[in-house]
Specification:
This protein has 114 residues and is of the alpha+beta class. The chain has helices at 2-14, 108-111, and strands spanning 21-28, 39-41, 53-56, 59-61, 63-67, 72-75, 86-93.
C-alpha cells in the first residue's frame, strides 16, 4: 500500500497536480516592448513563487516575480528590444472547486485512482 501512495505522489508531481497548482506554458506577457520597459504582467494572478521562467524570443532571461498575487514580473537584465516577444512559463495557484454535496474537488490523480 505504501508503494501505491509513493507512486501517486510521484505522478502528482510529474503532472504538476498539486492541491492548487496549474501550469501555464509559453504565454505572451503583457507590457510595452520598447527597449526601456522591464515590467511585464502575466494577466493571471496567484503565481506560485519559484515557478517562473521568462523567455525573450525563446531565449531564457533572468527575471523576478515582483508581485505573485497580481502576476507582475520584472526582467532583471537588459530590457527587451523592440520587435521581440516576451513569454512566460508559470504555475498558478487555483483554489479548489467545491461540488454540490462534496467536501472537496478530486485532483487528477484521485480521479484516475492512482
Amino acid at each position: 500500500m505504501a508503494g501505491r501512495a509513493t507512486g501517486g505522489n510521484e505522478l502528482r508531481a510529474f503532472l504538476n497536480d498539486g492541491a492548487q497548482d496549474r501550469p501555464v506554458k509559453n504565454k505572451q506577457l503583457i507590457g510595452v516592448v520598447d527597449g526601456v520597459n522591464t515590467s511585464f504582467l502575466t494577466f493571471d494572478d496567484r503565481v506560485v513563487p519559484g515557478s517562473l521562467v521568462v523567455t525573450v524570443d525563446l531565449a531564457q532571461v533572468p527575471a523576478t516575480l515582483n508581485d505573485p498575487v497580481m502576476g507582475i514580473i520584472i526582467v532583471t537584465t537588459t530590457p527587451p528590444a523592440q520587435q521581440t516577444t516576451v513569454r512566460g512559463h508559470v504555475l498558478l495557484s487555483v483554489f479548489p472547486r467545491r461540488g454540490i454535496g462534496t467536501s472537496r474537488c478530486a485532483t487528477r490523480a484521485e480521479r484516475f485512482r492512482v
